[in-house]
Protein 1
Amino acid sequence: MNQLANKPGIRFMSALRVALRNRFSRATLAFLGLFILVSTTTLSAKAAGCNGLAGRDSIVKYPLQEHDGVVGPNSIVGLWHTVYTAGGANFGISFKEWHADGTESENVDHSAVIGNVCFGVWKEVGLRTVRLHHTGWTFDDNGNATGSFTIDETDVVAPNGMSYSGTFTFKLFDTNGYYISGTETTGTIAASRITVD
């Protein structure tokens, strides 16, 4: 047996290495968060969370893949490039991941300061048709909590499995969980599956 392993100095060095490794991981995550924060623009408090763009001037385009003749799964499970439209205007663009266990996560093109990651639960309600209840926190431009929001969707996957379309209803709630009158927005969804070449 190695006699060095029982010495207090050796145990301290192992613990120190673990602590430094954990600090490095936290520092890396903090730097990544700061990088995202600095590289994105801020939106108004009403445009917080995974909701509307509220007058945003520019939209970042994602290089869409060509899917001519490609047939995908007969399921919504997977990664999607999703575009929300309300009243003829862009409401949000996201990367949305539908998981086989009935959960969903989304990263929308909004500032990390006001919240750009949100989650949901879904179930199949018909042939290639799903219903989603999606929620997240809202923040003002300074990162202060302003409440929460919900998005309820019904989506239908295309027969070739490479796109889906649907409708959504968005609502804002205050910090006490009460619906904020006049914040309901309805619109349409168009999504394209992201695949590995």
Protein 2
Amino acid sequence: MYYFCGMESNRQKKIASVLQGDLVDVLQSAASSGRLGVIISVTKVNVTVDLSIAKVYLSVFPTDKREELIVGIKSNASKIKHELAQRTRHQLRRMPELQFFVDDSLEYIDQIERSLKGLDDPLNNPDLLDKRKKK
């Protein structure tokens, strides 16, 4: 069982910071070499107490390519881990297993801002509401 505790140790924070910085470089260079025309941000990295797993949260723009890109990143996780291990070999003894997740918090914030400005008003545009099926 792996534990992500609420209070991270300084070691966990340091490893997460190192991984986040290097992951940005690795993922953005892979995206630009693939000519995908996307921007990938590593919004957060959480490392387990035993330092064996790193949960990586990614934000992708434009969002319509997000799912396809996350699938590609997950399928290449071992290559990404190897590249990170090369970059951090003087800082980390062991590279944690990488788990990638979508961070859609920026999209969520944008939706809230649009609603507050009255841009997405369901009273004026009922199509914005989810179509609910009656059971």
